[in-house]
Design brief:
11 helices; alpha/beta; 5-stranded mixed sheet; disordered N terminus; globular; 6-stranded mixed sheet
């Protein structure tokens, strides 16, 4: 492990899906500047992310964001002040990733500074490292978003064991698809969360989605289908759907499923430091269930670090650089990058 240098500046770039983000990080966790350009309102009319549209908007946003971040962070001469450019290289949408990676390569060449590609999931794990200086290896991290639901044993920088993953839909995807059927605006997860606050968590019964799964894996396809079928049955009967109760019951089932897997992971590994990350980590019921659980020591990232952001990319890149990992200018985006392709993984 190389000595940590708190004066070392890392420029992070994240463009894996529909958020363009650039951040400047000093050392392992001091955020000097962070900007994000959200595309949610632009994609809402389509009910989801349109990949080609997303990549065009990344092109429009990334250079102005970089200029703003460097100015705010006090960087007048990037060639002399920036120590590393860290960029998300996958997984994600190919067009979106390409914008970020090619921009990072241009910066690295123009400034003659190193470049390092970051796995998007590793970035989410490191969002917790930025927020919690007392978080130490080993710890368990559950990454829950629109595209991912995994439990990872983090044994060290670059040393990860995937303990369980979704076999079909991710938890965030289930939230969004059920919300769409209910006629709620995109993105549906936060809307369900708000409506659930006024509903009854036991008003509707949904199936146990874990009983037929091995190990610590997940499956949300059956739960999503059961919820959609329930909505369709109520509509066919001409009954009004009590949105608050329905959302509260659905959310409660998802949260109980996630927490149950965390409980199993703690029992199997004996590791009691538990972190969560990803977009669903901003869900109020999930955060409350993890924070109040007596079976572990919880670490929750700030809500602003739950969604895709460049701070987590810079933090993961800095840690990987300090541990001796290196990339070169031939770095290429990989939309299907496996978690662990660049890391030490045991399954």
């Amino acid at each position: 492990m190389l000595p940590l240098d708190r004066r070392f500046l890392t420029l992070g770039i994240e463009s894996s899906c529909d958020d363009t983000s650039v951040a400047l990080l000093e050392g392992p966790r001091r955020v000097l500047s962070w900007k994000i350009s959200s595309q949610i309102e632009r994609h809402a009319a389509f009910g989801g992310v349109v990949p080609e549209y997303a990549s065009r908007m990344h092109l429009e946003a990334i250079l102005p964001l970089t200029c703003a971040v460097l100015a705010e962070g006090g960087v007048a001469d990037p060639a002399k002040q920036i120590g590393l450019v860290a960029v998300t290289r996958g997984p994600g949408l190919m067009g979106s990733l390409l914008v970020g990676v090619m921009t990072a390569k241009a910066y690295a060449q123009a400034w003659n500074v190193p470049i390092l590609g970051v796995n998007h999931l590793e970035g989410h794990i490191y969002a917790n490292m930025v927020d919690h200086e007392d978080l130490r290896f080993p710890f368990l991290c559950m990454v829950v978003s629109g595209g991912h639901t995994e439990i990872v044993l983090v044994e060290g920088c670059g040393a990860y064991r995937m303990l369980g993953a979704t076999q079909d839909d991710a938890a965030g995807e289930a939230f969004d698809k059920v919300a769409k059927v209910l006629g709620l605006p995109y993105p549906g997860g936060p809307v369900i969360d708000r409506l659930a606050a006024a509903g009854g968590a036991e008003a509707f019964k949904f199936p146990d989605v874990l009983q037929h799964l091995d190990g610590l894996n997940f499956s949300f396809s059956g739960l999503k289908t059961a919820a959609i079928n329930q909505v369709n049955r109520l509509r066919q009967k001409g009954e009004e759907i009590p949105l608050e109760d329905f959302c509260a019951s659905f959310q409660n089932t998802v949260v109980k499923t996630l927490v149950a897997r965390l409980e199993q992971a703690v029992r199997l590994t004996g590791v009691k430091s538990v972190a969560i990350s990803g977009g669903v980590a901003a869900n109020s019921a999930f955060r409350r269930a993890v924070a109040e659980h007596e079976g572990w020591k919880p670490f929750l990232p700030s809500k602003m670090f739950c969604t895709d952001n460049a701070v987590m990319v810079a933090a993961a890149g800095y840690a990987a650089w300090q541990s001796g990992r290196r990339d070169d200018i031939g770095l290429a985006p990989d939309p299907a990058l496996d978690f662990g392709e660049d890391e030490v993984v045991g399954k």
